Amino acid sequence: MSNVPHHISRQFDNELETIRSDVLAMGGLAEQQFSDALEALIRFDVSLAEQVIENEVKVNSCEVSIDEECVTLLARRQPAAGDLRFVMAVIKTITDLERIGDEADKIARMTINLAEKSVPRSNYIGINTMGVFVRDMVRDALNAFARMDSQEALVTAGKEPESDEQYAALLRQLITYMMEDPRNISSFMDAVWVARALERIADHARNICEYVIYFVEGKDVRHISIEQMEDEVRGG
Amino acid sequence: MSNVPHHISRQFDNELETIRSDVLAMGGLAEQQFSDALEALIRFDVSLAEQVIENEVKVNSCEVSIDEECVTLLARRQPAAGDLRFVMAVIKTITDLERIGDEADKIARMTINLAEKSVPRSNYIGINTMGVFVRDMVRDALNAFARMDSQEALVTAGKEPESDEQYAALLRQLITYMMEDPRNISSFMDAVWVARALERIADHARNICEYVIYFVEGKDVRHISIEQMEDEVRGG
Predict the structure, then answer these.
(1) What ipTM, to 2 d.p.?
(2) Of B35, B101, B105, B231, which is the most exposed, with the fewest CB atoms less than 10 Å away?
(3) In whole angstroms, what is the distance from residue B191 CA to residue B110 CA?
(4) Predicted pLDDT at B118
């Protein structure tokens, strides 16, 4: 923005800063929704689960309004280089945040189903452990976005394969329970959907990390292994 | 583009046309992958399933290269109004096409699992029916994109709730099978994942239709019901 008058450049910076803080607010909301859904699941708290379902629209409307801000900024300010990469990273990130909100909503719905049934809570200990792991991944991905820290993004993305392993182990466990207790298969299926939602949320957290790396390093690190990603970022 | 010299305007049009045809090629590829995965599932054809898995990277690399084209176009040409909406619609659409490719890959993997097991094919008739329904939705969504036809997009998006009903019915059926035949639960779970993949693909087809409507009508119709969407489009 070196060739434009100072006051226009400052306005532009303000607009970018508004988008940035709106994404962080949306991230905070999605994280809260996910965290509340997990809390509701752990405590079989139906009213908290209902609150998550009610708040889902808020995450959706953030996505719509931030997309609009991005289109307006692209049309008016014609950003280039890093600013353009930032806008691209935002457009992608909010899609993943919206999906995290969707998955939180699904967990809340399954929690209500599970609370009505007679499945022992001890069967969900593995899910709670994975839930905490994935919640930390989401928090770290959002921190990486807030600070545009590609190293933290790399470390956080690197945890995603572990969430896949946790998911596979949980699934094996749940299938064993089903075989032992076929009458409760539909309750166990609800638990399967929760596990699946957690696995998807970990994917979304990884995606957000990839957009941070794209913005900071100017490199598209999607569709490659964690090892290749490390080479791309650390290799400079 | 009325204030720029004719030859620049034509170059710009060519670049937009290239992006458009690249998205259509990517759409054709994702559709083919999905269609092959279904065919492999119906015929328990392991070698076709392996081919789908092998080709998955092609869909991914389309996403990366079209994203790059969009960034370059945004930086160089600074599109406004309809052209900018088109680029936004493309950026969103290719994410959904990539996910359709992912789901086709999952169906292919489940097909290989299922082919190794002794589950009667008659158990999958419901899945095949839903598969054909969703395949038609994907084809129609891509046709709507190719012609930027918001009416066709509306009709196709309107079929998504029916895919949800088919999915729910399939799931109930598969859970019944599991309860009757608990030893084969893990095979039935593979069928559950196929059903789930189909449900997700229908969502992606609906998303693509929503971007077509966004481009043509200039209205963001995400996160609203099909009825509200009809009002938005037909109400003008």
Answers:
(1) 0.93
(2) B231
(3) 7
(4) 67
